Amino acid sequence: MAQEERNREMPHSVILEGREKLTISGVTDVHSFDEEQVLLETVRGMLVVRGQGLHVERLQLEAGELIIQGEIGLLEYDDSVQPRDSLFRRIFGG
């Protein structure tokens, strides 16, 4: 089965706990992140997370899981965002 087909079958959920912990499944890539914004690709489209003091607590792309800690202020699906090449592809040469 091709990677793209597996991605479409991957479940997607977003769980926000007290605006301080965000757990996302169905993550296919993380394009950028800093303390104020995380831009990621999910099986349901591009997701922008904004806030303050954001940091990636756990990332498991093989399982499609991401946990972000910090003060979450905004979650927005925005398919008009055209990210540059993947952050992790640039770092790890994938």
UniProtKB/TrEMBL annotation:
This is Sporulation protein YabP. It holds the Pfam family YabP. It comes from the Bacteria. InterPro entries: Spore_YabP, Spore_YabP/YqfC, YabP_sf. Signal peptide: none annotated.
